[in-house]
Structures are given as C-alpha cells and as structure tokens.
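BUG: 3D viewer hangs when loading the predicted structure for this chain

Environment: internal workstation, default settings.
Expected: structure renders.
Actual: progress bar stalls at 90%.

Input used:
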Amino acid sequence: MDSKKVSSELNYSTKSGYRTHNCGELRIADVGKEVSIAGWVQTSRDKNHFAFVDVRDRYGITQCVFQKPKAETTEEEKAKMAMYEQARKLGREFVIMVKGKVLERVAKNKERPTGDVEIAPTSLTILNESKTPPFIIEDKTDGKEDIRMRYRYLDIRRNPVKDALILRHKCAQVVRQYLSGEGFIEVETPVLMKSTPEGARDFVVPSRMNPGQFYALPQSPQTFKQILMVAGMDRYFQIVKCFRDEELRADRQPEFTQIDCEMSFVTQEDVLNTFENMVRVIFKKMIGHEFKKFERMPYSVAMRDYGIDKPDLRYGMKLKNITKLCQGKNFKLFDEAELVVAIVCDGIGKWSNKKVKELDKLAKSQIIGAGGLIWIKCKDVKEKKGSFQSSISKFFKDDDLLPIANFCGAKTGDLICIMAGKDFKTRECMGKFRHEMGTKLGLRKGGFYGLWVVDFPLLEYDEEEKRWCAMHHPFTSPKPEDEKYLNTDPGKVRANAYDMVINGVEMGGGSIRIHDRGMQKTMFKLLGFTDEEAEAQFGFLMGAFEYGAPPHGGLAFGFDRMCSILGNETSIRNYIAFPKNKMGRDLMIDAPSKITKKQLNELYIATVEKKAEK
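Structure tokens produced before the viewer hung:
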C-alpha cells in the first residue's frame, strides 16, 4: 500500500470538532477555503522570516506557512508575531491544530498529494507537547528494531508500519466478504481450552477456581471447528488468535492470527477449489495480481525435485540425483552416501574461489545443517569435452565431471553445487540451500507463483521417541486406498492433507478429517495413545463422533504471513500492531513479568528461580 495514495478520495468524512479536513485531503480545488487541520508536527523550519510547519496525521502531510510580520504596530501584527514565534519553537511530534486559508504553493511538491497547496494560518493551538522522540519518525528511520518495539506507538506513526496495519485491515475485510458470500458463518471458539500433547508446546493458564488444574491457550481451534461440523453448522470460519510456545524467527510469533475454516460434506478438491478462489480474490482486490490455476504437486515430487515441501517455483534449480555418476571413483564421501544430489547455479561459475568457498560455510550453517558442499566450476562445457575446476579434482578429472555436467544441464559459466549423505537429510539440506541461493541470486524477487502440495505422508517416525507421530495432526484422515497399510506399513500411508504454497512460503494448510470414531481410535493407537489416554485427552471429540459426524475438512491460513506476502516483506512484525521480540517479550509493556506472591498463593503455584550459570 502506498501512503502517497491516501487522499481526499476517502468514501467517508473525517470532519470533527478539531478539523474540517485531514492532513492528506486538501487539493488545488480547495484554494481559498477557510479550513482547520489537526495532527503531529513532522518538521518545523524557520527560513527567511517564514516558519514552515509540516503537519501529519494518518492520511498524509500538509504544509503550513507562518509569515513573520514586518512590523508590530497593530494588534493583528502583534498576534501574527506571537503565532510566528510559537510556530518556530514547535518541537517534533507536538500535537497541534491549525486554522487558516488554503493557498496555492509557489514551489510545488510533486512527491506529496497535498503538494500543490499550503495553509496560511490564522490560528495555532498546541493541543499537547512531546518529548523529543528516541528515533526519527520517517519512512527511513535511524531507530534500531528493539528501540522501535519499545516505543511501538511512535513506530506505528511511520508510514511503513501504519500502511502495513491498514493493509491487514483491508485484507480481513476481503476475507470476511468472500467467506460470508460463500455461506460461511463466523463463530468464535474458546480461548481457554484443554492442553493436548501433540504439536508445539502449549501456553498454559492456571485455574484459581480449580486448584492444580490448567487451561491451555489454543494452538488452533481444531477440535472446536470439527465439533461445529458435528453440530451441523456446515461452513465455519474465524479470524482467530492462536498461541504456540516455540522458538521465534522473522515469520513466527508466539501469538499469531489464522483464517480458520471448516466445511461439511466436501472432498479434498472441493476445499482446494474454494480456497484457491478466495486467495485469487484477495490478491486481485488487494494488489491487482491475477494468479494462473494453482499446480497440484505431490509431496514426493516436491521433495524429489526441490528437497522441500514448500518450493518456490519462480525459478528452476531442480535437484538432480547424480549418485550413480559419482560412485566408484574412490571418493569415500560419495561411495558411502545413500544420495549424491546436485543443483546448477546459473552464471556464478565465474565467482572467485574465495567467494565460492563462502557457500561451503552457508551449507554448514544452522540454516542449512549440511556436512559441507562440493562445487564444480564449469569453465567450458561441450557435449563431448569439458574443462572444469572443482573441490574434488584429486578424485574427479575433467572426463569424470563432464557426464555430471551434461546430466545436470550445466553450461559454460555455471556452478554445480553438490551434497552427499543420508537420502532424506541430504535432500532436505539441498532444498534449504536452493532456497537460500534463490534469495542470494535475486531469483525470489517479483511476481507470485502459487501451488498446492498434496499427498503428504500421514505419519513420520520419531527416532528419539521410537514412535510414529502425525505429520500434520491426529485428526487427519488417510487416503482410502492406503488404509490397508495402517497396521502393516504405516510409513507408506498418504494423508488427505494439503498445503498452499506461494513464493516458497507456506500460506496455509489443512486436511480432510477423520469423522469415524473407529478410524480415530486406530489413529490414536498408532500414535502411541492407550485407550485411557485417548479418552482423557479427546473423549469429548470421540463422544461427538457417536452422534452422526458428517464427512468434513478444512484448512487454516497464516493471516500475518499472508499480509506480509501481499506487502512484499519477509517479516510479519510490521503487520502485527504490538509484536514480541525474538525472546517472546513485549518490550513496550515489559511482558512477561513477575506476579505478586498473593496472586501465586491464590493459584496454588510456587515458582523456582533459575540459577545463574557460573
């Protein structure tokens, strides 16, 4: 959203007892009018007997020019002089009201919608003074992130944050309008609910009235929305706060917002079509982008070709399995590997060795987690002859490297990057590396590409806990044709699950749910629950299934993430009014904080202080 477009074209009036117009409203057609505006002082400059004051509000900036009178003989001149002196002493972020006449500017400002006009004031009222802000309140600021989060109310005055929040509001309006038009009913579900063992850590809330017992804040309204389908609501949605106690990053917060949806009597294709169309409408209305039909890509293909279940398809760089071409050359790393996989980076074979070796550090970083990177510079590649420089030249001569280059489709000037090791981990590391290289080479800029990743595994095996875990959640149904493998080969079972991916970011995901008590019981058993544990945790849902549960399915979109993609940003923080920092702290209100001993006693809770490490 461009703040320069906020203008008099509003379809509502902002007129009030303090103002006839807002600070983004006045145009050349208003010349000659007596007006009043109110807002914050953006700048105050005293130049050649003129005090120039820019007044800012949510809608824009208007220039006011206070002229110093040539003499102070009359009462009117004395009043103008007092107003001039008052104006030239205005500090940044003072709150003022200005009354005056609209004049055409001599030196127009084409960068500002109000740049053709200015106000010649007849009255100046200081509504409130301000301390000097700890950072410059402009689009480009000198404030570091922590200081801006501490003074978030000042940061929101800046266009990038203000416009992000307005974009979020408008996106929520489009979502509600679309879903309401499709027969969805917005229903609020409880914030205080029951803790469940699957998924991320819960945030827990002690119950004063039930000593020793705890509520959990919802990681999602999953069970409630399924119960609403049992209740016959047919189509439900909610723009809802969710909570997860997990490690944070640029696109993750401990409390976040989902567009949560569920439908009865639907197949997977029904769900995909409904919400693909919703996303089309959102992108069209918000930023004018029209998507092509979303590709349906099986999870197995995504992992095979891209090494990641959320590939960015705006660029190529497919993974190539070169295991057979690499083994038998007495290079132990390759000979003992389950998989040797390569990607081709166009045109960077001309990079210096020092620069290429930096990619090895990237591969070994926490972001990627690989053991290292093998590289091949393609000096001259022809069908039957080639010249190369590589980090494995001791074991692979040019004649050995040519078949690899040809198989990968590499050309002169390209760089081949290779990883080797255990199949899944190596593929996954190369997928992350491809993702990072796409960003580094500028391939992930501009445009939008959407797809559905489908046919995920229903289960994944946890080597540490020695048990099967749900890849999505315990309520996801298996593909009917794979149910026969549940008891004999659980890892082979595919889920009726799907993720929407846009530009390499998981926008949302969901599944067709289990609606049969017997199948749900089987699923819990596979996950290691005893009948007693399943009943204690999910008895309310199992009980509901005994009263005629319809086939149903749905999904949830990350609303904060959706807004950041629409706004072309990687971080979601600007799109949240009061975000937490990387440690989950709200620096503005200093939360979390300790509570009083009285409060602890009322909750029957004692705390243990963590000892400082020596």
